[in-house]
Amino acid sequence: MARWVLVALVPPFILFAWLMTHPGMNHELQLPVQHFFVVTDISLIAAGVALLVARAALRMDQVRVLLIALGFMSMAGLFAVHAIATPGVLGAGSPASSQGYSAYPGYPGGPTSSTFSYGGTVIGLSAYLSLFVPALFFAASYSPIALRLKRRVPFAATGIVIVVAAALVAYGAIAVLNPGFLTSLPLSDPQYAYLLAVVSAVLFIFTATRQAEMYAASRLPMQGALAVSFLFLAQAQIIMVIASFWTLAWWEYHVLMFAAVVLALGALLLELDRRRGLERFLPAEVVERVVAGDHLRLVGERRMATVLFADLRGSTVLAEQLRAEDVVTLINAYVGVLAHSVFAHGGMLDKFLGDGLMAVFGVLPDGSDGAVPAARAALEMRRAIQAVNDERAARGGAPIGFGVGMHTGEVVLGAIGIPQRSDFTAIGDTVNTASRLQELCKEFDVDTVLSHETAARLPAGAFALRELGIAGVRGKSQPVRILTLDRLDHP
């Protein structure tokens, strides 16, 4: 990663330092039309990154990726206003471009030197905010804020996107219709603008550091590319503050922003493609950890895990009474409840089995070999199935029961199949035993059966367990001690 950092930091800073120490070479290039199109192109690329990434993040329930998308969305909107405010492009009839017109060097009535300060202008305020606001979102995506946001407001993700988009539209409207309001804000004052720049640079460096840690853990090139992108943005912010308006050094920060958004676009598209592949069988939380570098070998490995089988009761009888399309709708409703319960507690959905499913818990170590989240998922299934049955009863429908079997032991995890079609699955005696325990639910008239190996890994007092005794399990020479999650349990 050190080489990546050198490539990202050293050449741009060498060029910038050379231009600043050789004033004769740091020529002024007053190209307002070119500036308008360059900045507009950067804004469009950033907007493309935001739209592609936000759409995928919402679909996959990835809050961290969504925050990154919001960062690029804000960059696109605010930098677009920076483009609109380019002096002399949209004409004197545009308040946004004519605001502070006499303050721009090279224009009638303005100073003739390049000592222009961004302070007190719409173009300047928009430039600072176009990096400061994204820096806030990027830093938040690598902090505990992302996790808290996911837990507390998972339903409001789309609303957050709408609020950010509305705020950007409102800012653009004010910049065009009443730029004086923006330039009267304290943030437009040079001292506050410089403070924004310092905070932005610090946040970008923090974000790049966290991203570099993810690269060091995963060794995925896309992670390194994102880290370099954030470093480019940090440099762009520093150069924006130091360089004089219209000089070659000032133009360099635009080049750095362009390079940053192009790098980010490629890296994020690769990351989302990887996430889509993983989320075929892993919950969002596990995918997040795998992408961040947690060890999960797809080629095959042995590890301790808890396997859970869940199956519906009574669906076969209903299938004989209902139309085919109604059967599919009914089964999907119930099986969907089972699957969501698995994902809600960090389990891996191994496969659907007609009107049931197989799940694996503890794919990534959790201290209990997956026993605790598996038990919690079973209780969640109980509550959710009861809620669905209550709704059916209100419409005159018959309830459907379910049975869950759980066993903890060694499994072999890996991708099974051919290159064109494969599944990440668990195999071994533990899987067979869990399947047989699920069948015992009918015999003992309970909705959950777990082995002593699973029960032994549950914290004392955390779950109400009831002994069912010793039972013979098909395929095993020795009987198995089994228990059930008592219906009085409400952890």
Q: What can you tell me about this protein's structure?
A:
It is a single chain. The protein has 491 residues and is an alpha+beta fold. It has helices at residues 2-21, 32-60, 63-84, 95-98, 122-141, 144-152, 157-177, 179-183, 190-218, 221-242, 248-278, 284-291, 315-321, 324-344, 371-394, 429-444, 452-455, and strands spanning 301-313, 348-352, 356-361, 401-418, 421-427, 448-451, 465-471, 480-485. α2 (32-60) runs antiparallel to α3 and α10 (221-242) runs antiparallel to α11 (248-278). It is elongated and about 90 Å long. The model is unreliable at 91-116 (pLDDT under 50).
State the total count of DSSP E strands.
8
Which class of secondary structure composition applies to the elements? Answer: alpha+beta
In N-to-C order, the SSE pattern is HHHHHHHHHHHHEHHEEHEEHEHEE
Number of H/I helices: 17
Distance between the termini: 45 Å
Computed over alpha carbons, the radius of gyration is 29 Å
Percent of residues in β-strands: 5-15%
Query: Which parts are unreliable, with pLDDT below 50 for 5 consecutive residues or more?
Result: 91-116
Helix content: 55-70%
Question: What's the shape?
Answer: elongated
Biggest sheet overview:
8 strands, mixed
Mean pLDDT: 79
